[in-house]
Specification:
By secondary structure, the chain is mostly helical. Helix content is 70%, strand content 0%.
Length: 277
């Protein structure tokens, strides 16, 4: 892959996040940031994966597969967030940043989004590693990667729809969604989002010819887990939920795993947050 192509991809992602910053400034809705990020990462990732090598006029079958996967992922996630943004308010994570940064919010947000563009470039390069795997296609790891991707996409879609259905019921206002997948993980959408990038890692490391450099694809799921579980995903969202839901969310925290799905624990609190008998 020519270095200039990678640089063009980086510039494209940077410009897209500058557009996301402008959309937030014009509309006041931070949801457009994540929608544009999703479309940009999916689009640039698909283009980069399918960019043919110098020795071939067309991308390989594996490259086309990876390009289709990341493109489909970006389209679904971007469309979901865009629809939610059109009908909802501000994202509580960005609203919290606005409170913390005060008058410096606009300037700091711009550079914060440029860091997201850099993170996106790492993700698409991981997918590119999978696309350029020289091993014989299709292999066992290709099938495993596609299977994990399918489970991830379906799981993320289901968790999003379950949360939408819960929020659409006026009787649930002020309560915490703990049904379906949300009864197994407090952030099932984040879990499946992280799992999406595991699929590219599997495709990237498959076959002995790819082992020497294919491990670069592992950066995708590792970085995504770190960002979602420890930086920009779970921590600010849980802080916002504690402020808005109080004892109800504390009871939910005591009962349900924070990230990885698992059976619910016996809660130390009842629905009002008091110690259970």
């Amino acid at each position: 892959m020519p270095v200039v192509v990678v640089l063009i991809a980086g510039v494209a992602l940077s410009l897209c996040m500058a557009l996301a910053w402008l959309a937030r400034r014009k509309t006041g809705k931070s949801g457009w940031i994540d929608a544009i990020w999703s479309f940009a990462t999916g689009g640039v990732g698909a283009a980069l994966a399918c960019f043919p090598p110098a020795c071939a006029p067309w991308p390989s079958a594996r490259a086309a597969l990876v390009g289709a996967m990341i493109g489909l992922w970006g389209l679904r996630l971007g469309a979901h967030i865009a629809a939610r943004t059109l009908h909802g308010g501000d994202d509580p994570r960005y609203a919290d940043l606005a409170r913390q940064w005060g008058d410096a919010f606009a300037a700091r947000l711009f550079w914060f989004l440029q860091i997201q563009a850099l993170a996106s470039l790492v993700l698409v390069l991981g997918a590119l590693t999978a696309a350029r795997n020289p091993a014989v296609f299709p292999g066992v790891f290709d099938f495993l990667g596609v299977a994990v991707f399918a489970v991830s996409l379906v799981g993320e879609t289901i968790s999003d729809r379950q949360l939408e259905h819960f929020r659409s019921n006026p009787a649930n206002r002020g309560n915490v969604c703990d049904t379906g997948l949300w009864g197994l993980s407090r952030h099932p959408n984040y879990f499946f989002e992280c799992l999406v990038w595991v699929s590219y890692a599997l495709i990237g490391v498959g076959g002995s010819a790819a082992i020497s450099w294919g491990w670069f694809a592992m950066l995708g799921p590792v970085m995504m887990y770190w960002l979602l579980a420890h930086v920009s995903g779970v921590p600010p969202l849980e802080a916002a939920m504690l402020r808005s839901r109080g004892a109800k969310f504390e009871a939910y925290q005591a009962r349900v795993n924070i990230f990885f799905p698992g059976p619910p624990r016996r809660s130390a609190f009842d629905a009002t947050g008091r110690n259970a008998p």
